[in-house]
Design brief:
The chain has 3 domains: 120 residues, Probable tRNA modification gtpase trme, domain 1 (Gyrase A, domain 2), CATH 3.30.1360.120; 128 residues, tRNA modification GTPase MnmE domain 2 (Four Helix Bundle (Hemerythrin (Met), subunit A)); 156 residues, P-loop containing nucleotide triphosphate hydrolases (Rossmann fold, 3-Layer(aba) Sandwich). It is α/β, with parallel strands linked by helices. A hairpin with a 2-residue loop joins strand 9 and strand 10. It has 15 helices and 13 strands. The structure holds guanosine-5'-triphosphate (GTP) and magnesium ion (MG). The site of guanosine-5'-triphosphate has 24 residues, from helix 9. Guanosine-5'-triphosphate binds next to helix 9.
């Protein structure tokens, strides 16, 4: 992958296929000069000197042949996404015109941008930090309103500010200790005075609080898989449909209706969820159903959470066997009595293995459904009551860095009477780790991976 950040880059910025408009974006010192070579203004304006920002006209190739009628949008450094000169050529939205414009731009000396290269330039030029750059991709990929809100929150800089506040207090502590290291004959017991220790404790608490948000942040971004399991006819497909508010799966009174795994995406109180309906689990001689049962077992193993559905009007020994099988998976399980409209007095057998939560519902009357949704959302969010707009870690690597930083601070707090060199070492480690989150100290290979995951043109 290209890592140089000089030169002028170009890429198609809109999705492939047909649309109202298609945009070719250029960024770099030659962006406006290159566009001016190809652009014929309908009012005879020269985009290299005009103070306007939007121009109407045509793009023609080097032989003068018109490619398309366009609007050209010029954004001069540093007032652009990348902080460089940026030109966006708005052509008609179709693969033909957009590719022809890109070819013409490349022929004039622009280089095809790598994945995420525009955003990487915004990062390298200091317009956004790494947290915000990553939030760009999360914004693009957000699958629910809450996911979008979480990405926007990170993009607006609230997480960056929280990280900077941590860096500042770590930096202050380090400066105080280093001053002590430089003058070892000074009063060493004073090195970590009570106020400094208290400040470090506070920093450590803030780190732990932020760490506790990581699972929720990841969930809003990546979503979770919930598999519905149970004996044939328990009402799994009925519940699947009820949660989706859609008649997606076939429901019949015949045991063994669902044979394949069905999967749909839904928003569970803002959490993107892949909901999976499976074949009823039983031993069967039917070859097709047997495959379905094997597929169902795989789905259970892969899920973040399992709903074990039991027919309240027909509780049997097989339900216990299944409860034991699911308990052995080590996945959180919500055990649900269904069809309580048929058996209002039915109770969950007390001697089943412990479940993470229990509920009573009727998939047909929707009784208990809202409570079940509450329970599922709470379980997925790990009991952390967190608003999607709150300060939240969104990524595994952020969590990993912050965890290492918190461990270093914990070692400082564990024994403040050790040598100042040791304390300084731990604080430097913590600063390094925290800086990896915002990008100040992130190794190049990690940056490669992060920006490599972007699409070309972003
Ligand atoms: N009265 C009542 N009937 C229900 C309820 N839930 C499901 N049923 C009925 O139970 C039968 C089986 O429902 P399904 O949703 O197909 O059950 P399933 O678990 O998907 O069954 P398989 O796919 O065969 O494993 C159907 O006749 C449903 O109408 C409920 O809460 N109350
Ligand atoms: Mg079914």
């Amino acid at each position: 992958m290209v890592t140089e950040s000089d030169g002028t880059i170009a890429a198609i910025a809109t999705p492939s296929g047909e649309g109202g408009i298609g945009i070719v974006r250029l960024s770099g010192p030659e962006a406006i000069a290159i566009a001016s070579q190809l652009f014929q203004s309908s009012r005879g304006l020269d985009i290299t000197v005009s103070r306007r920002r939007v121009f109407h006209g045509h793009i023609a190739d080097t032989s003068g042949k018109v490619i398309d009628e366009v609007l050209v949008h010029c954004m001069r450094a540093p007032h652009s996404y990348t902080c460089e000169d940026v030109v966006e050529i708005n052509a008609h939205g179709g693969p033909g015109p957009v590719h022809a414009v890109l070819e013409a731009v490349l022929a004039q000396g622009a280089r095809l941008a790598g994945p995420g290269e525009f955003t990487r330039r915004a990062f390298l030029n200091g317009r956004i930090d790494l947290v915000q750059a990553e939030a760009v991709i999360d914004t693009i990929r957000a699958r629910t309103q809450a996911g979008l809100q979480a990405a926007q929150s990170a993009s607006s800089g609230v997480l960056s500010r929280a990280i900077h506040a941590l860096r500042e207090s770590l930096g202050e502590a380090l400066a105080r200790i280093e001053a002590g290291v430089d003058f070892p004959e000074e009063d060493l017991p004073e090195l970590l005075d009570a106020a400094l220790v208290e400040a470090m404790r506070d920093t450590h608490r803030q780190m732990l609080a932020l760490l506790a948000t990581a699972d929720a942040g990841r969930l809003y971004r990546e979503g979770a898989a919930i598999a519905i399991a149970g004996r044939p006819n328990a009402g799994k497909s009925s519940l699947f449909n009820a949660l989706l508010r859609d008649k997606r799966a076939i429901v019949t009174e015949h045991a063994g209706t669902t044979r394949d795994r069905l999967e749909e995406t839904m928003s569970l109180q803002g959490v993107p969820v892949r909901l999976i309906d499976t074949a009823g689990l039983r031993t069967t001689d039917d070859a097709v159903e047997r495959i379905g049962v094997a597929v169902a077992r795989d789905a259970l193993r892969a899920a973040n959470l399992v709903i074990h559905l039991i027919d309240a009007a027909d509780i049997a020994d097989e339900d216990r066997a299944l409860a034991e099988e699911i308990a052995a998976l080590d996945t959180p399980v919500v055990r649900v009595l269904n069809k309580i409209d048929l058996a209002p007095g039915a109770a969950m057998p007390a001697d089943y293995p412990a479940a993470t939560a229990v509920a009573r519902i009727s998939a047909t009357t929707a009784e208990g459904l809202a409570d079940l949704e509450d329970q599922l959302a709470t379980l997925l969010l790990g009991g952390v009551q967190i608003d999607a707009g709150a300060v939240m870690l969104n990524r595994m690597h952020q969590k990993d860095s912050l965890r290492r930083a918190a461990e270093s601070v914990a070692r400082v707090l564990a024994d403040t009477s050790v040598s100042p060199e040791f304390l300084a070492f731990e604080l430097r480690e913590a600063l390094q780790a925290v800086g990896e989150i915002t990008g100040e100290t992130t190794p190049d290979d990690i940056l490669e991976t992060i920006f490599g995951a972007f699409c070309i043109g972003k």
